Structure formats: structure tokens, C-alpha cells
TrEMBL record:
Belongs to the cytochrome P450 family. It comes from Forsythia ovata. It is a single-pass membrane protein. InterPro entries: Cyt_P450, Cyt_P450_E_grp-I, Cyt_P450_sf. Keywords: Heme, Iron, Membrane, Metal-binding, Monooxygenase, Oxidoreductase, Transmembrane, Transmembrane helix. Its main location: membrane. SUPFAM superfamilies: Cytochrome P450 (SSF48264). The keyword Metal-binding applies. Pfam families: p450. The keyword Transferase does not apply. It is found in: Membrane. GO terms for molecular function: metal ion binding; monooxygenase activity. GO terms for cellular component: membrane. This is Cytochrome.
């Protein structure tokens, strides 16, 4: 498995931790083409870019440099170096890439995954841990996880002799579990919201050339991804508002019934 580190600042920080490198020197890497940089080396592997990373790491070592348009990136492909990045010097690499998809979906990076490390992020993480992910609460979702896992296994078994996109199915599994756990009780718009979450996840996980050339603002318009994500976000807001209103009505009716 390879770890992708965005921006040359990450590169400088990492290199300063290892002897034999100066801060002004980049790790070794394959040749680059004008304007596009290194993507052609990944294209050679077709639909398996991780194979390309493996092959490049064998040639250039566990720390290598690739250029993707305007983005300078360091690829880490060894457990020892990965530990340095993810554990020993994790705060030095706690930045988040500025991508179009999370900017739109998370209202300018306001979620715990994409927000920059700092006071707000710490508070969000604390809330997630104390209110959502404590052991008793997670255990209460076990029946949902078991049901969705059973559905996934049945689908795989029914497709025994056909190719399946397991990445897509695992994303759908995750979104279904999270969606059902969030809503708890079944509601008429729940299926619509989960479907929208799947659509947003699929769209956000796609490639967009504008992310590789952040200085060329017009690419955000011509690529079409921004418009698509904005429409999906609007639909999800409407569906979520319906669910919230439905939940509030149930609570009001329950209080009214108990008061009689």
C-alpha cells in the first residue's frame, strides 16, 4: 500500500527527518512530461494504479516524488517510512488537500475529516468520540451492520461468475450502515438520502482535472463536477430537512400523547 502526501511542504518536512537529504532536494522519481508531470506512469497500469506505485517504488525506493499537474507529491511505500509519517511525525502531516469535492460537500471543509488540524478539529473529534462512537452506542448498531453485511455477501454470492466492483459495493455498504444508524427509525425519505449519499460519494471519489491545476479557476466550471455536486448537495439538503421535520413531528406527537 502506498501513502500519497499532497504538496511539496509535506515533502520538505519528511525529508528533514531523514539523513542524506537536504530540504531543497526532492526524492528520486520517474521522468516528468511538460504541463502534466507524472500521470502517464500511472496510466500504464490501466485500472490498477496501485500496481504502478509498486513498480515505481521497486525502481526509485520507498520515498519517491511524483508531479501531478501543479501538485507536487511524495509517495511513501514502506512500513518503516509510513510509521514515521502516520505515527512519529503525524502532526507534521496533518494538513488536508484542498479539493473541489470536499469543499462543496462539506461546506468549505467543515467536517472532521477534511478540516485543518486545530481547535475546531479537536472539538469535532471529541464530539464524535464521546457522542457517536462510544462503545455502547456502536454496539447498538450491530444488527444494522449484520444485516447490511449479509446483504453484501448475498450479492457477492449471486455474482459468483461475474466481475463486480467491490470498491463501489463497500462504499455503498458503509453509507447504508451510517445512514441507517443515523436515522435509527425507518422513515419514508431514508432510502432517498442513502441513495444521495452513495451518489455524492461516487462523484467525490472521481478524478477531476481542476484539482491538479488549482490556479486555473475556469477548470472548475468546464469540468462539470462542481455543478453536479452542487445539485446533489441541494437534493440531499431537501431530503434531510424532510427527515428532520418528520422526526420533530413524531416527538411533538409523542409529547402531546404523554401529556394527555
Amino acid at each position: 500500500m502506498s501513502i500519497y502526501l499532497d504538496t511539496s511542504s509535506c515533502c520538505d518536512t519528511l525529508l528533514s527527518k531523514f539523513k542524506g537529504f537536504r530540504r531543497t532536494k526532492l526524492p528520486p522519481g520517474p521522468c516528468k512530461l511538460p504541463l502534466i508531470g507524472s500521470p502517464h506512469h500511472l496510466a500504464e497500469a490501466g485500472s490498477a494504479p496501485h500496481h504502478a506505485f509498486r513498480n515505481l517504488a521497486r525502481k526509485y525506493g520507498p520515498i519517491m516524488h511524483l508531479q501531478f499537474g501543479e501538485i507536487s507529491a511524495v509517495i511513501v511505500s514502506a512500513p518503516r517510512v509510513a510509521k514515521e509519517v502516520l505515527k512519529t511525525h503525524d502532526l507534521a502531516f496533518a494538513l488536508r488537500p484542498k479539493l473541489i469535492s470536499p469543499e462543496i460537500i462539506t461546506y468549505n471543509y467543515l467536517d472532521v475529516y477534511f478540516f485543518l488540524y486545530g481547535g475546531y478539529w479537536k472539538q469535532m473529534r471529541k464530539i464524535c468520540t464521546s457522542e457517536l462512537l462510544f462503545a455502547k452506542n456502536v454496539q447498538s448498531f450491530s444488527s444494522i451492520r449484520e444485516e447490511e453485511a449479509s446483504n453484501l455477501i448475498e450479492f457477492i454470492q449471486s455474482s459468483l461468475f461475474s466481475p463486480i466492483n467491490l470498491t463501489v459495493k463497500l462504499f455503498a455498504f458503509k453509507n447504508n450502515v451510517v445512514g441507517r444508524a443515523a436515522f435509527r427509525d425507518r422513515c419514508k425519505d431514508q432510502a432517498e438520502v442513502i441513495l444521495l449519499i452513495n451518489d455524492l460519494t461516487a462523484s467525490a471519489g472521481g478524478f477531476d482535472v481542476a484539482d491538479l491545476y488549482p490556479s486555473i479557476k475556469i477548470l472548475r466550471v468546464v469540468s462539470g463536477l462542481k455543478s453536479k455536486l452542487m445539485k446533489l448537495r441541494q437534493k440531499s439538503i431537501k431530503a434531510l430537512n424532510k427527515i428532520i421535520n418528520e422526526h420533530q413531528e413524531r416527538l411533538a406527537n409523542k409529547e402531546k400523547f404523554n401529556g394527555q
